[in-house]
Amino acid sequence: MYTGTAVFDLLLPGDSRSLKAKRSYVRPIVAALRKFEVSVAEVGALDLVGRAEIGVAVVAADTTHVRQVLDSCERLVAGRPEVELLSVRRSLHSSGDGE
Q: Among residues 32, 60, 30, which one has the least CA distance to residue 43?
């Protein structure tokens, strides 16, 4: 069993000067990522109105599938014209790690 995670660091548009406006950008991205059958949530920069961190996690039987899903998620986020993708932090773990 393999698990993969990705954290997307996003710069939001200048008009997102309130947490309500921030949610209007983050919620549609989170909803779109769910189509890949991943766990997804806003995980960082919660109190910063111009930034957001969205985390994605996937579990699969092989690393190829984990990487393909994370690649698809990254393409989706990078393709959103309303936000700027600043960075992506990825991690891959096997069930044998730490034994």
A: 30
